[in-house]
Amino acid sequence: MENIKMNYSTEKVYENVEIEDGIYKLTIKGNFNGKPGQFYMLRSWNREPLLSRPISINHIDKEKIVFLYQVVGEGTETLSRLKKFEDVEIMGPLGNGFDIDNIKGKVAIVSGGIGTAPMQYVAETLKECSIDLYAGFRDKSYIIDEFKQAVENIKISTETGREGYKGYITDIFKPELYDVVLCCGPEVMMNKVAKLCKDKSIKVYISMEKHMACGVGACLVCTCKTKHGNKRTCKDGPVFLGEEIL
């Protein structure tokens, strides 16, 4: 494919808007690629030791790439101040995404908070699957409307009870109803989902979230423990079979 953006490049911001408290949507126009579950490294600063930030792909089409991110520290705070037509440096796509071609049948997407962001692209890409979305949030949901054309059913939980079920999304998730489960979110939530799936012998794919320095497997900052030894989340993941993760 011609004119695909690869490795580090300087791009112009098309849009960078706050869609919910502390949640930003960054859009860059152009011809980009990436599989569901992959990520890019982003930066808009020249000072060290502030490292680039790994941001999962939220959406790609023929005209643009979209990133959804939460402001949690200095790096994402700096990204949130980007204005239209300002420069942002990106590198990617990186990591291994979901094995879309081998995901069939009845599928559950289980997400928590900003972990819902990469699952939009997953849902949009899965074909010939019946998909249900289980999305948990602390107080208020976001980007749920973007899933409606790609999934059959949507179940929402909030810890405050503001929307949907009051409590955790794992309280209402039943893995035995599905052939495959795809999960991304807080580690405690993913641990619970993996255990529920293991108890019912249901295959589950986990998209890990770790602090990263390089994004290409050289620095070993993002190492996670698996049955097959330590793996690099950025290079060997971020998507793993749930049964492999310790």
Automatic annotation (TrEMBL):
Q: Which gene encodes it?
A: pyrK
- In this chain, [2Fe-2S] cluster is annotated as bound at C214, C219, C222, C234
Protein name (database record): Dihydroorotate dehydrogenase B (NAD(+)), electron transfer subunit
Which terms are listed as keywords in the entry? 2Fe-2S, Electron transport, FAD, Flavoprotein, Iron, Iron-sulfur, Metal-binding, Pyrimidine biosynthesis, Transport
GO MF annotation terms: 2 iron, 2 sulfur cluster binding; electron transfer activity; flavin adenine dinucleotide binding; metal ion binding; oxidoreductase activity
Q: Name one GO biological process term.
A: 'de novo' UMP biosynthetic process
Cofactors demanded by this protein? [2Fe-2S] cluster; FAD
Statement: the UniProt record of this protein carries the keyword Metal-binding: yes
